[in-house]
Amino acid sequence: MAYVDFIQKIHKSTKRDYVGRVNEADKAECAEVALRWDKDYWDGDRRYGYGGYRYDGRWRPVAEDMAKHYGLKPGATILDVGCGKAFLLYEFTQVVPGSRVAGIDISRYGIEHAKEEVRPFLTVGTAAKLPYPDKSFDFVFSVNALHNLYNYELWEAVKEIERVSRGPKHIVIESYLNEREKMNLLYWQLTCRSFYSPKEWEWFFRQAGYTGDYSYILFQ
Q: CB–CB of 131/125 below 8 Å?
């Protein structure tokens, strides 16, 4: 297991008013709305989530870097756990010729409004119980999804990612390096259930038998 960062640059490109997020509305109510994972979360007001999550090509460099780093070959089978609108998964179909992709997400709205080209390969479901055979994918990744699970669900999800992969794996989660970043994360998040420092994440991954790589985003 190694730390390999692919997305921190994208994360840093968005400016966030952490205190304003708390003060501008009833944060608890906003979280309740966000946890429905429907239109409000993806394409509604910013206080409920993304504030409009549309394809803009920003994930192409991430797919290119991951494909190069993990040596993905033409025709590779690729799974995105927590795919949302599957923009990153779509990019893999562009940078890995002939790749066969699959994605799963708890949000029916996200999948129904996913990139049209990959929508037929997406499934509504939970990361804690992946509907795929053992060792069925050459590459499995999960970006900014698993921290939304309670620890008992997270345990199962990590073990499931390990089970369905026959190759490299990469998990991206939210984390913090100091108390300021921890507070910013608490101010900003709406759906996070697992709040761990990097050392805690590493411990959790080892306990679950995870052998892939990981990285985290920080709210600085």
A: yes
Check: CB of residue 46 under 8 Å from CB of residue 24. no
Distance of CA 88 to the CA centre of its chain: 10
CA distance linking residue 104 with residue 95, whole number of Å: 20
Convert the pLDDT of each residue in 133-165 to its tens digit: 999 999 999 999 999 999 999 999 999 999 999
Domain ranges of the chain: 8-21+59-218
Residues 6+ apart with CB under 8 A from 37: 106, 107, 108, 109, 110
The residue written with tokens 């080209």 in the block is 117
Q: Is CATH 3.40.50.150 correct for 8-21+59-218?
A: yes
Compute the distance between CA of residue 89 and CA of residue 63 in angstroms, rounded to an integer.
Answer: 8
Query: Where do the DSSP E strands lie in 39-180?
Result: 77-81, 100-105, 122-124, 139-143, 169-175
Distance, CA of 189 to CA of 49 (rounded, Å): 9
0.70 exceeded by the pTM? yes
